[in-house]
Design a protein that fits this description.
Blueprint (H helix, E strand, L loop, with lengths): L1 E7 L8 H8 L3 E6 L2 E5 L4 H8 L8 E6 L10 H14 L1
Antiparallel strand pairs: 1-3, 1-4, 2-3
């Protein structure tokens, strides 16, 4: 399943490298937008949350949500290729 991991990090100057590493450790990932990652993983949304939540502050915000077939936007071709190849494999 592909999940979109979206966040709003509120602490300027904080080193969020551990958060980014935790996201990358959840599965195959793609990162085309500043505060959005796509993760192809066997984890559930809650499983991803359990891995990444220790690396954010209480005033940060995060949304982890499944990516469906109904999608649209403006991304580079390689981003759509990544998404579509994984959606096809999951079908």
């Amino acid at each position: 399943m592909i999940y979109a991991v979206n966040y709003d990090l509120k602490k300027p100057g904080r080193d969020y490298a551990a958060l980014y590493d935790a996201i990358k450790g959840c599965g195959s990932w793609w990162h085309h937008l500043g505060s959005t990652w796509l993760v192809d993983t066997s984890l559930t949304a809650d499983g991803i949350w359990q891995r990444v939540s220790p690396h954010i502050d209480q005033n940060d915000r995060m949304l982890i949500i499944g990516v469906t077939k109904d999608k649209s936007g403006w991304l580079p071709k390689e981003a759509w290729d990544w998404i579509n190849s994984r959606r096809a494999a999951a079908a």
